[in-house]
Amino acid sequence: MNEDNHELGFEEVAAKYPDFPRLLIRKLDAELRGVALTERALERAKEEGCLYDASADLGQETPRPVLGGALFRDGSWVLGMEPMYLQFPQGYTRSGNTYSIDAVDGKLWLLDGDEPVEEVFFVPYPEYFGKKTSRGTPMVKVVSARLPGLLFVYLYNRCDFWAEQKPCKYCSFPTRVFRRKPGYTQEGLDDLYETMNEALKEKGKWMNIVLLAGSNLSGNSPYDNEVDEYVKVLTTLRKSFGTEKVYAKMVASAFSREQLLRLKEAGATTYQPHIEVWDEKLFEWICPGKAKYFGRQYWIDSALSAVEIFGRGYVCTQFVGGVELMKPYGFKTIDEALESTLEGADFFARHGVGPIAIIHRLEKGTVFYAQKQKPAPLEYYVRLMKGISDLHRKYNLSVDFNNYRCHPTGDMDRLHTAAREGVEGGN
Amino acid sequence: MSKLTKEIIALINDSESIKVLATADEEGNPCTAFKDSLTVLDNGNLAFGEEFEGSQTNVNLVRSIWFNKSVELTVRDRRGTTFQIKGKPYRYVHAGPLFKEFYLAEREKRGPDSELAGVWIITPEEVRNETYEVRKKEEDERHPFFRHFDRASVRKVK
User: Which residues of B touch A413 (CB under 8 A)?
Assistant: First the structure.
């Protein structure tokens, strides 16, 4: 958005920001515009062992194709293909024409209209897909895999903010495919243990696990029962890995110091209480549940206090990039939006909390989708990703547990990985 | 068509030959690294394993693939036959069959706690024979006035 309200297209943005890799601009644009696979591409994915039919696991009669993943030449993943993965809704508000992936002259390409713009490569689906636990549970329902090297454990699919009709306005959590109520049973943990063991048999495949749950206010102290669930899962993962520490990303609510210490004792190495949006008034509007339980400062304090427990660079907080532009209360220009969000990112980075950002997906099932809001422009995301990566560099702050293989913020960090922590990179 | 002749391919596939990769950072500072796993793929591209995501070499290669910069590989055998291959990074592979092949080879070589971040594929664009005898002949022909007078080809030594 510039003065005459013209949104810059891909080529204009690429020309305006020559220091930002063209390929990464394409990646961001693909997320905003969406990517569809042609029949030829789907056939190719099948031939290469990259397309899994999850219909039997889901008890559906119609095919439910799931892609093992798609990567650009630089190893970063193709965004905008959510319908090809498990656990995503099927509807989005996109901006501009949808990209497609098709086979052209024997190679796979991302096409903008008829024009091949970037070569892409499919990734085989995980070997544990299609297997069942000894209790007969399909393993993909226990542990999901969304990106080439990322395991995904939804602890449960419930959020008290939704129950109170105070959901974060960009969140589609209750629409996700696998519904599980809070409260892992012993059988559920046994399934998790078996599935993890099976998944980990695949050599050279996995580098990251995400543990994710909705906010659960119940327990002796608020969020205590949520912590209990993380402890159960961490204890199970510790058994699978045979180690004291579990190198997983733990995306969770704002916990107290005592709760964080419990998690560390259970093997947690990282922690992410997401602030989502920095501006105080917008935080209250966009995240009314977080504002009520127990306010912006509480969420900030939780992240800061976690640095003392897990260490600098082992705590992250995420901004949902673009929500601060939503109408009617959001910022009117991308300059104002970026000034606010990067001010928040700078604050956290200064205190040892790694700021990260995602692209706001206008997903079906969210308040913003229902309101027919419009995605933020491409230029905003280029400036946001660059701004956040510059802060990582400025504060010499590693956010490796949200690296480019599992998070869009990590892409630009690839240019200064070797210089972090005051240690010279080797050859 | 591949830029690599049978002689160069044999040199690269010789496990005894030395393989060195040269890259540059943002400011042009050079960085060299041994790449023992260098191999020639069926389509004529070159591939080697990169052990560490955070190495300066890897960072330089990422910059090269993003901003279309060249890198150079030098290969030399025990007899001194040497080739320099300039090329562009075409792809960084960290999933799928090719990565797995390199990953398992790394495990075999260095044991169960070894790491392989990814496999870089380089498209060769220019090949130069840097073997001493070949280069000397070229230089003598092109620059005859850059020879010392006590060389046998310039003055008869009594």
Answer: none
